[in-house]
Structure to design on (428 residues):
């Protein structure tokens, strides 16, 4: 068959893995991104979407299997099913190697940066705990079908896959009991667990124009999303002998070991000195600002910038005992990132910058604006390899070099990778 339609089955030789977790195959010269496949396999795939530049497919039958294929531990994963995980069918070691391959390729193709030329390589390091890659998600957002049944979205779909258990969810998330309740009038139900303190919470976004009443029999308090700062319920996380308040729907690292591992890595790579002026951009509840405060000492200054009112208020509360830290609530843009408000709070140009932006990254102009202030180093925490590669390219253009690149498996069973890059000024 030369011109298959969506729903048709075609046989494919599967090539390299692509960002997003699908693998690249070709049919009559046309690129097809195939889900639930592995490099080197021969599969029968169902065509799921056809675009002008490429098609999508889902491997429904494996004709020649990769040695890295395993039986999916999750009964809801697989062709056409839950879109939460990409790689339940892959060994953890192969998942990590594929993440490293994708990242190296993104750095090369988008960043024009060859790791080997810089004397670096990427190894995706597992986090402590959860050796089977399951039970790590301390925050799960459940979609709700019209009848109030919770589930997870199917891949690239608004359809809900109902489930009675999510295997990557932390046991405390499961204990909250979201899946066994009915959520009539809710659009989204998010279960949040804080394993270090044992707290849990369910945050509900009501559906527009529907009346929501919380179900009974849950093992967690229920909050409505968007409550005002200070009045909304929160959970607390303990990291390195400090307790962080994180209000209901505020940001916190999702893997239970992530906050500690990332804070330690940022501290090691930033290597702050007494008296340094440090910028912590996209600061959330203040994790990195707190970590950097002690080493800069009383003569130093850390300015934490965060746009979300609730997160900024959490950061103020979490950092209140650290007189060298200021929290600035503000939306970072290429125009404000190195602007006068931040410079005033910092009391001069930054010696060090830590940036942990959302998926879209800093952007070329913001990276250039920050580095025009000549910090000694920029420590860039990234959850998106393409955005990181683009911004590393901008930094290289400003005369900075990539001195270290760490990659962590914060999101096992998915194609996502977390990186921490150290960009240093001048030659060593
Ligand atoms: C990936 S989180 C990092 C939080 C923190 N570094 C941590 O590890 O807990 C990104 C944070 O940036 C904030 N944010 C998003 N866009 C922003 C912007 N334009 N300016 C400032 N903060 C922003 C979000 O509210 C969120 O708290």
């Amino acid at each position: 068959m030369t011109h298959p339609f969506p729903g048709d089955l075609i046989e494919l030789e599967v090539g390299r893995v692509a960002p997003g977790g699908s693998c690249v195959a070709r049919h009559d010269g046309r690129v097809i991104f195939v889900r639930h496949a592995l490099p080197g396999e021969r599969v029968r795939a169902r065509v799921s979407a056809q675009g002008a530049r490429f098609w999508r497919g889902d491997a429904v039958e494996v004709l020649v299997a990769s040695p890295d294929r395993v039986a999916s531990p999750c009964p809801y994963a697989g062709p056409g099913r839950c879109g939460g995980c990409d790689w339940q069918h892959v060994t953890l070691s192969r998942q990590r190697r594929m993440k490293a391959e994708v990242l190296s390729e993104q750095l090369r193709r988008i960043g024009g940066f060859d790791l080997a030329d810089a004397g670096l390589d990427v190894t995706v390091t597992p986090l402590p705990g959860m050796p089977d890659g399951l039970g790590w998600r301390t925050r799960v957002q459940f979609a709700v079908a019209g009848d109030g049944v919770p589930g997870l979205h199917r891949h690239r779909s608004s359809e809900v896959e109902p489930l009675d258990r999510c295997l990557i969810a932390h046991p405390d998330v499961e204990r909250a009991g979201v899946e066994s309740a009915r959520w009539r009038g809710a659009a989204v139900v998010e279960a949040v667990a804080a394993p270090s303190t044992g707290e849990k919470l369910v945050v509900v976004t009501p559906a527009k124009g529907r009346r929501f009443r919380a179900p009974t029999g849950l093992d967690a308090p229920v909050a409505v999303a968007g409550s005002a700062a200070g009045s909304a319920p929160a959970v607390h996380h303990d990291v390195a002998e400090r307790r962080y308040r994180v209000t209901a729907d505020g940001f916190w690292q999702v893997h239970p070991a992530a906050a500690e591992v990332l804070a330690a890595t940022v501290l090691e790579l930033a290597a702050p000195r007494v008296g340094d002026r440090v910028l912590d951009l996209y600061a959330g509840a203040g994790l990195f600002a707190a970590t950097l405060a002690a080493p800069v000492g009383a003569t130093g200054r850390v300015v934490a910038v965060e746009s979300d009112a609730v997160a900024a208020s959490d950061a103020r509360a979490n950092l209140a005992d650290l007189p060298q830290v200021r929290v600035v609530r503000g939306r970072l843009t290429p125009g404000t990132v190195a602007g006068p408000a931040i410079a005033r709070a910092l009391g001069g140009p930054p010696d060090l910058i830590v940036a942990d932006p959302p998926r879209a990254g800093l952007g070329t102009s913001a990276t250039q604006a920050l580095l025009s202030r000549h910090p000694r180093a920029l420590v860039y925490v990234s959850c998106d390899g393409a955005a990181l590669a683009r911004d590393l390219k901008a930094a290289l253009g400003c005369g900075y070099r990539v001195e270290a690149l760490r990659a962590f498996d914060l999101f096992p069973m998915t194609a996502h990778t977390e990186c921490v890059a150290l960009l240093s000024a001048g030659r060593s």
